[in-house]
Amino acid sequence: MSNLIDNIKNLRKITGAGFLDCKKALEENGNQIEKSIIFLRKKGLAKASNKLSRETNEGAIGVYTNNSIAIMLEINTETDFAAKNSIFLDFVDQIGLYALNVNNTSILTLDKFLNQSFDGKKISEYFTEIITKIGENIVLKRLSFINKSSNSEFFSYIHNPFRSNIGKICVILQAEVNNNDKASKQFGKNICMHIAASKPLALDIDKLEVSLVEKEKDILLTTIKSSGKADNIIEKILEGKMNKFFSEVTLLNQPYIFDTNKNVRTAVSEFSSNNLFNILNFELFVLASQ
């Protein structure tokens, strides 16, 4: 009975529904809060002001790695105050470590991950508990993973850190490295810092979404034609503007922030003359950017 009473209290805090409505919802749904929330919402008994309907534009991003995988996740809160709370940051770490222990990373979509069970509970239940504890809506917004290939290393950078692995802007870089010495570690970190500052959309031109490239080309072509330029030079102008676009949005073609006289591709090539450093992949999360 005490467990039922505790769940009634928690359900009331989350939904704003009355005591008897919460009691009935729990009794009809096996004392499970998640199912009871859905039950109350379908009945129209969860108030519009309940925590699950509140916007979450704050929060934190966490980075977690082991010998086989790197994971980045974003968990959002309503306020910056809650995001800096040690209870919330411990929760981010808890969920990040659970993600590292998922056996089949191909299931790591948000919904499937939230249905995974650890220590006898579904991940979604841990979110219900933290919502009750902190008193704000808290949601898992994004989850991404990079599998480690042979001869590759992970590098990371945390901007505006709350903890060494948690912040508001986070980068994971995967690179093929012959010798992961001090110089390589520093160069990897520098590339991560470049990514955080320059925010590339893709590694190289061929990795950009075709629809994005076509959209940009169409916009530029329309603009050029409207300026009254002669047909014989339109293509040359378009080529120049597209190259500028590629230099802004693709990592290897961006001016390197530590030496803007060269692009990242050249910087990597020069470093690789002494020790191979081949960028394979990267992931960038900026808090509340999507």
Describe this protein's structure:
With 290 residues, the chain is α+β, with helices and mostly antiparallel strands. The chain has two domains: 52 residues, Orthogonal Bundle (Helicase, Ruva Protein, domain 3), CATH 1.10.8.10; 154 residues, Elongation factor Ts, dimerisation domain (Tetrahydropterin Synthase, Chain A, 2-Layer Sandwich). The strands form four sheets. A four-stranded antiparallel beta sheet has the order 5-2-1-7. The protein has a three-stranded antiparallel beta sheet with strand order 6-8-11, with helices on one face. It has a two-stranded antiparallel sheet with strand order 3-4. The two termini are 43 Å apart.
Secondary-structure arrangement, i.e. CATH architecture of the largest domain: 2-Layer Sandwich
Number of helices: 11
The stretches of 5 or more residues where confidence is low (pLDDT under 50) are none
Strands, total number? 11
The main pleated sheet reads as: 4 strands, antiparallel
Global Rg: 24 Å
Instruction: Give the name of the CATH superfamily of the largest domain.
Output: Elongation factor Ts, dimerisation domain
CATH topology of the largest domain: Tetrahydropterin Synthase, Chain A
Spatial order of strands in the largest sheet: 5-2-1-7
Counted up, domains total 2
Give the overall average pLDDT. 90
Shape: globular
Q: Any idea of the CATH class of the largest domain?
A: Alpha Beta
Amino- and carboxy-terminal Cα gap = 43 Å
- Quickly give the structural class: alpha+beta
The amount of beta strand, in percent, is 15-25%
Helix-strand topology string: HHHEEHHHEEHEEEEHHHEEHE
Oligomeric form of this entry? single chain
Secondary structure: helix percent:
40-55%
